[in-house]
Amino acid sequence: MEILSINNPRIKQWKKYEKRKYRDQDGQFLVEEEHLIEEAIAANVLVTLLVLQGKNNTLDFDGEVIEVSQVVLDKLSTHVSSVSMIGVCRQLDLKPVKMDRIIYLDNVQDPGNVGTIIRTAFALGYDAIYTSETSVDMYNEKVIRATQGALFHMPIVKGNLLEIMKNHQAYGVHVYATALDAQAKQLTKVDVKVPYALTFGNEGSGVSSQILAQANTKVMIEMERFESLNVAVAAGICMYEFYHKR
Questions:
Q1: Which range marks the domain in which residue 54 is found?
Q2: Looking at the structure, do residues 25 and 143 belong to the same domain, yes or no?
Q3: What is the pLDDT of residues 108-136, one digit of tens each?
Q4: Strand order in the sheet with 174-178
Q5: Of 74, 29, 78, whose CA–CA distance to 52 is shortest?
Q6: Which of 44, 66, 90 is the last residue of a domain?
Q7: Which string of b and e fits 77-93 if b means at least 16 CB within 10 Å?
Q8: Same domain as 83, residue 134
Q9: Is 215:176 a contact under the CB 8 Å cutoff?
Q10: Is the dihedral of CA 99, 131, 153, 237 positive or negative?
Q11: Which of 96, 106, 190, 227 is the right S-S partner for 128, CB 3.0 to 4.6 Å?
Q12: pLDDT in tens, 172-204
């Protein structure tokens, strides 16, 4: 099958996936870059593969493959340079299997930060990520790219974070939240209690007061200069420190 025109109804619909409303409406999202498409295939979520007309497709995919023009790919792509393939994927439904070590994201807005946190959490073997409803959408193209494929393997649940936290605490999860106040313990001196959740907040305002009030322990990163770090950097430091204290 071929689609050569950007006026094709399917192309017009897929173009709408730049907006969360339409991604959620159809339960689908787009993936660019061959290695990310390979991860989508491995996760069994690739629905349709769009390949540049005349390109030799070496991917091991038995589903729908459509040859398209470069004009069509450029229309759908968010990259500055041209791509040779795009994947249409169904949204993931990965359920947490364990709850020993989890991450909470409270109103984290920057897609690059969220994607980096997902990638780091997956690399260090964390079990799941829970995000507030106000955090950036996991299927934002910049989030997907920053995860470098970890998105397809890490259970991510979005909801009312305060209620999620209370429910987890009822089952014994100890919640640690990053904070800059007198009650916060230095990261290297914290006693890690398993199961636990590490909580990271908004780039500008940090973890919200409601979440901080519900947390069991506040933690801070000791520094010689500056008071705070980029949230993805801070999350990486905290996750690594807790990883070695398990």
A1: 2-90
A2: no
A3: 999 999 999 999 999 999 999 999 999 99
A4: 156-159, 128-132, 101-106, 196-201, 174-178, 217-220, 185-186
A5: 74
A6: 90
A7: beeeeebbbbbbbeebe
A8: no
A9: yes
A10: negative
A11: 96
A12: 999 999 998 888 999 999 999 999 999 999 988
Indicate if 84 and 105 belong to the same structural domain. Answer: no
- Residue 35 C-beta-side C-alpha neighbours within 13 Å: 8
Looking at the fold, whether 16 and 69 belong to one and the same domain comes out as: yes
| CATH code for the domain of 86 | 3.30.1330.30
Q: Convert 132-163 to b/e letters by CB count within 10 Å (16 or more is b).
A: beebbbbbbbebbbbbbbbbbebbbebeebbe
Claim to verify: residue 34 and residue 72 sit in the same structural domain: yes
Quote the Cα angle for 128-162-132, to 5°: 55
Neighbours of 57 (CB within 10 A): 13
How far is 66 from 59, CA to CA, in rounded Å? 13
Residue 53's region, left for phi above 0, alpha for psi from -120 to 50, else beta, is beta
